[in-house]
Amino acid sequence: MKIALLGSKNFDSLEFHINDTLVHMGHEVHHVDMSDVINIPYKYNYWATKLFPKYDSNIFKKIAHKIISIQPDLVICTYRFINPICIKIIKNNLKSTPVIHINPDAVTTFGYQQIFASEYDAYFTKDPFIVNFMKDKMGLNAFYLPEALNSRYHKSPNKDREILESEINIDVVAFGTMYPYRSKMIDKLIDSGINVSLFGVPDKRFPNQKIMKNFRNEYITGERKADVLFGSKIIFNNFHYAEINSANVKFFEIAGIGGFQICDYKPILEEYSFVDLKEFTFKTIDQAIELIRYYIDEPTLRYKIAFEQQAHFTLHHTYEKRLEQILKIV
């Protein structure tokens, strides 16, 4: 099948893994992002589309015609800010081609609600709460689609775990942008005496000075990410507050890598996990601290849980599984 994919080309992004997986499955993929129609760095282009409506519509008209020229059998969109004029032009010119949207983010990331203003043939999103809202309140053709892992990238490093753990020398690791909600929870861990190492970007608007000394000043991706997560004793994965009944992509990637994580309790995790949720989830920060203190000196148990999760997730929660579901529907 010839597929046009509209979204970011950044490494380790959702679109990167969709593209990689579709190609692996034998499809012809044409990946289109904003840089294909205008030579301006993404961050500037993104804000320009938000601030200048006419510029926004012109950019997405160009993108629409770029996709039409491909003559795809299916169009998959992932940007949340696609101007509805883009989808309208594509559908008017490719009348027999399904145009779908995959939104992997929490319910606070709909921007100006361009997704709802666009006539997609199908909408895929990860939280049953918003799926039901889209179906029952707006009458949209919406489907539940959890996050996933890419087993070609999210896998254990070929290294002895105990030796790597000694080399990495991290008790508890957290990674990603340290938004206020995340940093507030992490400073509670630090206050309790837990040794936490942070990878990623401090919050520039409201930096939490209490956690600054814990940053390793490194953004981790690829093999380095696998080494750090596999070699850390515990990964603290605190979900965004807008994950109403869903899990972040880290939950799946950590499992694929074989890391041992402690994360927020969500009922939906029962659907994903092989291991009983009480073994690794918390409802309060005090419970998180208690779990961390318990597992720090229990390497055998940590390894057992991590390996059981890894085997289960790489069988049931890959991008291949998700894309097979999508292709079956559309």
TrEMBL record:
Domain (Spore protein YkvP/CgeB glycosyl transferase-like): residue spans on this chain:
183-327
The lineage's top-level taxon is Bacteria
In Pfam terms, one family for this protein is: Glyco_trans_1_2
Q: What is this protein called?
A: Spore maturation protein CgeB
Q: Tell me the organism.
A: Flavobacterium terrae
Cite the source lineage. Bacteria, Pseudomonadati, Bacteroidota, Flavobacteriia, Flavobacteriales
